[in-house]
Structure formats: C-alpha cells, structure tokens
Design brief:
- The structure is a single chain.
- The protein is of the alpha/beta class.
- It has 2 domains: about 5-205, Spore Coat Polysaccharide Biosynthesis Protein SpsA, Chain A (Alpha-Beta Complex); about 210-310, no CATH class.
- The protein is about 50% helix and about 15% strand.
- The protein is built from 12 helices and 8 strands.
- The protein has helices at about 15-25, 45-55, 70-80, 100-110, 145-150, 160-165, 180-190, 210-230, 235-265, 265-280, 285-295, 295-310, and strands at about 5-10, 30-40, 60-65, 85, 95, 115-120, 155-160, 195-205.
- It has an 8-stranded mixed β-sheet with strand order 3-2-1-4-7-6-8-5, sandwiched between helices.
- Helix 1 (about 15-25) links the parallel strand 1 and strand 2 (about 30-40).
- The protein is globular, with a radius of gyration of 21 Å.
Length: about 325
C-alpha cells in the first residue's frame, strides 16, 4: 500500500503532462502512487500517460467523460490508497525533493493536517519569480486568514486522508476556485494548516485569454463566498472579513468584465461596466475610461493593450485574478 497518492487531473495537456509525470517519478521519496485522471481529453493526453504507465507501475490512468477539474480530482481521490494526498496539476512540475520535504513536515507535526507549499513561476511575465513570499512572514493559515488572504494556501499542497474523510470531495458544481472552497471547508472543520515556504516546484502560467479567465475566476470566487456566508453564520469576525472580500471582488469583477468587453470590442457593455465601476469607486481615471468608451473606443483599446504589455498578469488557478482597473 503506497503511503502517498499523487492526484493529477488532466484535460487536453498533451504538451505538458509527460513532464509533470516525469517530475513525480523523479522524486527522492518513492513510496507513492500517481493517479492521472484523463477528464475527456480530445488530444493525445491519454496516450502520453499510457506510454509512461507501461514504464512505471506506480502510474494509474483513469479515463472519464469531462467533469471538470473538481470531478477529475474527486475520481483520483476515490481511487487513492495512500494515507497522504498530494496535488500536482498536469502542467506543473515538482523538484525531486518535493514529496520528501512535505511528508517530513507532516511527520514532524502530527497535529497538522495540511502542508501548503511554494513554487517558482514557469512561463508568463513572472517567469522565474516565486509564487509566494520566500521567506514568508505570514502566520500559518487559519479560517480568518484564508478568507482575508486568498493567496494563503497554494495549490501545491499535501494533506492527510483524514481531511478528505472529514470534509468530503471537491465541489463539482464549481468550475473554478474549487480548491479555495476545499481549503475553506477544511478550515471550518478545524483542520490545521502549516506553511512550507521553500519553493519546491514550478507553477506554469499558460497563455489562455487573460480577460476571459479573469472573469471566470472572479465569478468563481464570489460563488465560493456566497456558499461560505451560510457556513460561517455564527462567526461574526470571519463574516466581517468575508463582507470586505465580497465588496472587493464585486468591484474586481466589474473591472474584469469591462476589460473583456473592450477586448472583444463590445463597447456598449464596456460602457455599462465602467459606469457601474465608477459609481462604486469614483475617480478621474474611471470617468475618463467611460468617456473614451463612448467617444473614442479605439483609444481605450490601445490603452488596454499598453497595460497588457506591463509585467502584470493573472495567475492560472488563483482566486485573485489580477489588477482591478481597466
């Protein structure tokens, strides 16, 4: 029976999944199984996994119709046999020491349920930078901290099986931010988090549509917060933090929707979003952007492209979707 089950969802990642798997197989800690769930890919993802599975018996390929990231992770966890679950996305990479170090942290802290890690950005404008502070001055995550700081738990996390047993699977109704919802539910259930800020992996930033992914991410986080509000009804401190976050992300969503509307040249919609954002925040720059959307939309498009050229970008898979002004 393997001690660790590595959970890898995979959807249309033929160019990346082989490297992700090889980074797992190269671990100095070897007592693990790797469960790759091909979530209805239409490319050669499954064939790549199958070829590698012939070379290493620790790899299990599960194929299913498309259920989304949460559904793929859930399928892997249902098949898992280990006492620890380690999340590795199919386009990310681990350094060889990743599992050994994280398992050592949990072994030294028997009261801890989840160790959340750190990594270097791979690709994108932040390539080579750390995804989280290192050293990280923040305290270990707790419920209030996870609500108020959406960066507090990193996707490269390892947790004990008892977390899954206690809180259940990822919420398959969510098409984004399902990991954030999972960590919040774990914190509500009293699970203990520890942070290992040493970067031990590489977190890929892919060139998907920035504006569209921002809108999707922000809608997802607001969905998480709507669900969370009922779950923490008896916690006034956490509710106060939550309301601040809701107000913040509602504004960020309006900004992201305005950027997307500008990007696709829907200037009527952009004008509405900019007006709503100006009503919420005020400010001369938003008033001027609203003016341009009516009278000089081409200038607004050029301004957005100029802004896109700056070293600012949304981070794939993160709750916070980046800069907030159009």
């Amino acid at each position: 029976m393997p001690l660790v089950s590595v959970i890898m969802p995979a959807y249309n990642v033929e160019p990346y999944v082989g490297d992700a798997i090889r980074s797992a197989l190269a671990q100095t800690f070897t007592d693990f199984e790797l469960i790759v769930v091909d979530d209805g890919s239409k490319d050669g993802t499954a064939n790549t996994v199958r070829q590698l599975a012939r070379q290493d018996r620790r790899i299990t390929l599960v194929q299913q119709t498309n259920c989304g990231l949460a559904g793929a992770r859930n399928s892997a966890m249902r098949a898992a046999r280990g006492e620890y679950f380690a999340l590795l996305d199919s386009d990310d990479l681990w350094d060889p020491e990743f599992l050994a170090v994280q398992i050592a942290v949990l072994a030294a802290r028997p009261e801890a349920d989840i160790v959340t890690g750190n990594a270097w950005y791979l690709g994108g404008p932040k390539h080579g930078q750390v995804a989280r502070p290192y050293p990280d001055p923040r305290p270990d995550p707790d419920l209030a901290g996870i609500i108020g700081d959406e960066w507090s738990v990193f996707i490269m996390s390892v947790f004990r099986r008892r977390v899954y047993t206690e809180i259940g699977p990822f919420d398959e109704s969510m098409r984004s931010n399902e990991d954030y919802d999972f960590w919040l539910r774990a914190a509500i259930a009293g699970c203990t988090f520890v942070r290992n800020d040493r970067p031990l992996g590489h977190y890929r930033v892919r060139s998907d549509s920035l504006s569209a992914s921002n809108v999707r991410m922000l809608r997802g986080i607001l969905c998480v917060y709507t669900k969370l509000k009922a779950q923490i009804a008896g916690r006034p401190r956490e509710l106060q933090i939550l309301q601040r976050q809701i107000t913040r992300f509602e504004g960020e969503l309006l900004a992201a929707e305005a950027r997307l509307a500008i990007e696709i040249a829907d200037f009527d919609a952009a004008r509405q979003y900019l007006a709503a954002l100006h009503q919420r925040r005020g400010g001369a720059s938003l008033r001027f952007a609203h003016f341009l959307s009516r009278w000089a939309p081409s200038m607004l498009t050029r301004a957005l492209r100029l802004r896109r050229s700056r070293p600012e970008s949304a981070d794939r898979g993160e709750p916070h979707a980046g800069p907030v002004t159009p």
